[in-house]
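HUMAN: Can I see a protein plus its fold?

ASSISTANT:
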Amino acid sequence: MKLAFLAARTADAAAARRAFEASYPSVDPAVADVIVALGGDGFMLETLHRFIDRDIPVYGMNLGTVGFLLNEFGPDDLPARIARATPVELFALRMRARQLDGTVVDGMAINEVSVFRETRQAAALSLDIDGVNRLPELVCDGVMVATPAGSTAYNLSAHGPIIPLGANILALTPISPFRPRRWRGALLSSSTQFRIQVRNPEKRPVSAVADFTEVRDVVEVEVWEDREKRFQLLFDPEHNLEERILKEQFIP
């Protein structure tokens, strides 16, 4: 098994990488069988984006804060841990955002695609689902489309639902909705095509964000799941991602 070690830009992660490379043979990521990512959830997302076209498994070890997408850090028996790890396959969200000047920007997200107000004024949005206008006007701070893996992140803090892995469902979650007041979002098939239109974008400017891609002054955002872009994460059997997502639903 050829391993490549990558580290976040922190002292702890850099030190861990040096220790691993001194203990285990390492290769360039271009020829590796498995990428070992040392850092936090943000670094894991960076790593997955970096190697999206290689479809290479990534085994993460937490040297950050939360570490939801990573395993516990431990320097011993790394090849054995990786050999018995459980693979989890995730799919990317695609974003296509059109700006006021007509420019079209594409992005990709693992957790969620979000649309936000840019100023003190609330955003006024219109939501189409599979070509049908389901909500003519949503006045809010924003709205997001979240994957199962991302449902325990920003989506959860916005009071969105937690989605089990393998459910083939995406969450459409409003952020601080004002009108309609009682709308709490929707759970929709992973094959859904989302179209978010901005009403009065000159007066109420809006940004769109897909992980590391931010687009300002948008007038329309399309979102869909891309089944051809997949990510493979490896988890210790006793700390697999499906179990973590399940546990999140029972935390008081």
Summary: The longest strand covers residues 218-235. Residues 3-84 form a domain with the Rossmann fold fold (CATH 3.40.50.10330). Residues 93 and 188 are 14 Å apart (CA to CA). DSSP finds five helices and 15 strands in the chain.
